Amino acid sequence: MSTDPLTVEAAALAQAGLRISGLSKSFQRTQVLKHVGLDVQPGEIVAVAGPSGAGKTTLGRLVSGLETADAGSVQLAGRELLAQPPQRRHVAHMFESFALYPNMTAFDNIASPLRSPACREKPDAPRIRQRVMDLMELTEIAHLAERRPSDMSGGQKQRVALCRTLVQQPDLFILDEPIGHLDAKLRHKLRGEIRRRQKALAQPTLWFTPDVVEAMAVADRVVMLVDGGIRQVGNAAALTQSPADTDVARLTGDPSMNLLSIQLHQQQGQWWARFDGSDTLLPQWVGERMAAEGVLAATLGFLPAHTEVQADVLLGPDGLPATVYAVEPFGKYTLLTLTVAGQRIRAKVPAASEWSIDQRVSVGMPAQGLCLFHPNSGRLLAVSSPAP
Ligand SMILES: Nc1ncnc2c1ncn2[C@@H]1O[C@H](COP(=O)(O)OP(=O)(O)OP(=O)(O)O)[C@@H](O)[C@H]1O
Predict the structure, then answer these.
(1) % the chain with pLDDT above 70
(2) Ligand 1 centre and the CA of 36: distance in Å?
(3) What residue ranges do the domains of the chain occupy?
């Protein structure tokens, strides 16, 4: 794949990154973005991940000028964007809805930003053809060049929209769920290809996705957006091993962290939790920390990969009594879903092991990487020590 070198002017403009601060937005009386602030360095890919309705699309639309912010500032390449109309912002935005021109072929849709009077580079026709075809080949739609959107599948339209964004040389790329409609094989290929391509450029990229695994795979940093607010910014290790709260814990990891609600009591100087009539000995730091918080309840978090399961019910004092609810053999490992006192947790266990539904088992929580969350606010209070 060939990529044009940035023009001198575009390179100069791209010498600074993106800085969003205090950005807020309400629709009617509902605040959907709450004082959002984040920086994206030149050449950096930052993924904004969060569940449906978290505010991802709204954040993108505020940055590219399709919505008006109530408060805050957006600086790009040293310019304040919020006072400028969309066409002066030099943001290439791929919309979740694709927004293709229905009367244009795939080729013409992709070429349209390069032929626009607003295009700063003014490439000639052979150069446009080369850039468009390079991207169509990369995304495996070169054979659709003359087809119109009405004759394309959702995944094909999504790739046309993606190419139409990547063909540009803006000051910022915004990709809103760019590969969500593609099959797993193509999604995995394009994750790597787009990351490779964007990392070679000087511009920052904002990538929105509800899929935290995709976010971790493509981005230098992941921003977790929940209910319009940023809960945590970090890399894959930080988000999966020490999530800022139980909402982030539920969204990250594959599979996500086990969250177990417990009630604590002290007996003969030791801290215990009661499950289905039997007591389990807790790590003493858990009891001491919750006593210091003045709450005798907590949520414990531990990863399925660090959850030990024994096929006997002769529990040690720190074992949890559980029954097998579901068995999923993935080939390389088996994923067990277990019931512990009415709560569901999961364990990744060796593939060779044999399990049956309703089998009674004993579960061991890990000594390392055990997360302690506040039972009411859900915020992370402590992690025992980094997971092995
Ligand atoms: N024009 C609008 N008028 C009223 N409410 C809106 C408007 N646009 C978005 N919202 C609301 O704002 C909230 C955030 O929506 P947004 O589309 O930004 O979320 P999202 O994280 O992109 O979700 P998804 O992953 O489903 O696309 C939602 O509750 C949505 O209903």
Answers:
(1) 94
(2) 15
(3) 8-234, 258-383
CA distance 101 to 107: 11
Q: Which CATH number fits domain 8-234: 3.40.920.10, 3.40.50.300, 3.40.50.2000, 1.10.3210.10?
A: 3.40.50.300
Strand 333-340 to strand 343-350: parallel, antiparallel, or no bridges (unpaired)? antiparallel
pTM recorded for the entire structure:
0.88
Ligand 1, atom 4: closest residue by C-alpha: 27
Pairing of strands 172-176, 91-94: parallel
Q: Which CATH architecture has domain 258-383?
A: Beta Barrel (2.40)
| Closest protein CA for atom 25 of ligand 1 | 52
Backbone angles phi, psi at 160, to 5 degrees: -65, -45
Convert the pLDDT of each residue in 345-356 to its tens digit.
Answer: 999 999 988 899
R_g of the chain, CA atoms, integer Å: 25
Atom of ligand 1 nearest to the CA of 210: 25
Cβ count near 332 (within 10 Å): 8
Q: Which atom of ligand 1 is nearest to the CA of 67?
A: 1
- Rounded CA separation 298/36 (Å): 29
